[in-house]
């Protein structure tokens, strides 16, 4: 068996320069190189590629093929690859007949969370508005369209991997024809590749939210909750809210207390790591997750987390976070006030650290498990 790794799936996509699925693929690749696994990979030379990954491939003697101006089929044929693995397989990869295809499909957001009213409070392009209205007004047609798109993953020659028990049972719920033995579940690998930082005891206190530009992450409801609490005088004056992924121009909603918010836009991994390390509270009101990295990253530093329990969140975070109804601004306000009470705060510091350790143990086991599965000779 000769493996070709889809490195293009780790490059920038519609979710941004850095995205969870891409980071997932990078961690698997780095572990494979570290284990001395020999394989080739393909990438798109017209897009940014993480220098760390390029260096790891060069260090490990991994042959890199630029697919820009070429094709996967041509690379497979010319170099004799017999299997492809992708961390985010495009719909065309499972249809290839020139080799086996293994791929990780992280979740079913198109089916589970096709739309939500919070969308109206974000700024979007005309194209995004049209897509949203089609989903909302023609949901049965949209789901049928999605069903046809996902059907390629149920090809008997495609080996489907997913990242949580929630995602596995979501597939079985929406696609009754899918057999349980057609899927393997391996938890998403730990992304905390940086050395753990020391928390700064003198850092200002802030609630941290990430991916602020994406409506499905639902951070605007958390911002509205924080804004109302500030207006009502319910929060100490030294507590701010820091939001990454937007410069504050993603929203139609007008904040009443803009001076209490900091919008940082896209931040590099080292900056984000420092933000996690020094946060006072982490807020994650996401409406859908296949796995859900950010709360785990915060719990690593003993940062109390308040979060949505939807989709995979309750499975991954278990009792380590304080949950709220993500559709209720009032309940998010409730939890923001609750978590800053000293007894509750300290309770979730400890609960979060304990849950982080449990998840890391599973992640470490599953990282080698998924590589063994990808490399197995069937």
UniProtKB/TrEMBL annotation:
GO biological process: lipopolysaccharide biosynthetic process
Residues of the Glycosyl transferase family domain: 200-342
GO molecular function, a single term: glycosyltransferase activity
Keyword Transferase (UniProt): yes
Record's keyword terms, sorted: Transferase
Domain of life per record: Bacteria
InterPro entries: Glyco_trans_1 (IPR001296)
Pfam families in UniProt: Glycos_transf_1
PANTHER family per UniProt: GLYCOSYLTRANSFERASE WBBK-RELATED (PTHR46401)
Protein name according to UniProt: Glycosyltransferase family 1 protein
């Amino acid at each position: 068996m000769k493996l070709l790794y889809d490195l293009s799936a780790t490059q920038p996509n519609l979710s941004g320069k850095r995205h969870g699925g891409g980071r997932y693929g990078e961690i698997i690749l780095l572990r494979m190189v570290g284990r001395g696994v020999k394989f080739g990979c393909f990438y798109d030379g017209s897009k940014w590629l993480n220098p760390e990954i390029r260096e790891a491939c060069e260090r490990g003697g991994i042959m890199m093929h630029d697919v820009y101006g070429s094709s996967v089929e041509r690379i497979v044929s010319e170099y004799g690859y017999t299997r492809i693995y992708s961390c985010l397989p495009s719909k065309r990869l499972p249809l290839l007949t020139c080799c086996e295809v293994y791929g990780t499909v992280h979740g079913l957001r198109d089916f589970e969370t096709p739309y939500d009213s919070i969308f109206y409070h974000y700024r979007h392009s005309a194209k995004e508005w049209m897509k949203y209205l089609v989903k909302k007004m023609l949901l049965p047609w949209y789901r049928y369209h999605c069903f046809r798109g996902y059907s390629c993953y149920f090809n008997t020659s495609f080996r489907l991997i997913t990242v949580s028990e929630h995602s596995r049972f979501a597939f079985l719920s929406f696609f009754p024809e899918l057999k349980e033995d057609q899927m393997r579940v391996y938890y998403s690998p730990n992304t905390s590749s940086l050395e753990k930082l020391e928390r700064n005891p003198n850092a200002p206190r802030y609630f941290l939210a990430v991916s602020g530009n994406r409506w499905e992450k639902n951070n605007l409801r958390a911002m509205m909750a924080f804004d109302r609490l500030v207006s009502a005088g319910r929060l100490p004056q030294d507590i701010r809210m820091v939001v990454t992924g937007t410069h504050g121009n993603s929203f139609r909603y007008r904040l009443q207390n803009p001076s209490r918010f900091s919008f940082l836009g896209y931040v590099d991994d080292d900056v984000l790591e420092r933000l996690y390390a020094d946060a006072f509270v982490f807020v994650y009101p996401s409406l859908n997750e296949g796995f859900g990295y950010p709360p785990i990253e915060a719990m690593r530093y003993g940062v109390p987390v308040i979060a949505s329990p939807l989709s995979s969140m309750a499975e991954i975070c278990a009792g380590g976070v304080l949950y709220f109804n993500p559709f209720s601004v009032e309940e998010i306000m409730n939890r923001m006030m609750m978590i800053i009470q000293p007894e509750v705060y300290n309770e979730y510091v400890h609960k979060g650290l304990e849950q982080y350790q449990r998840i890391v143990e599973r992640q470490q086991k599953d990282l080698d498990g998924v590589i063994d599965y990808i490399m197995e000779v069937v």
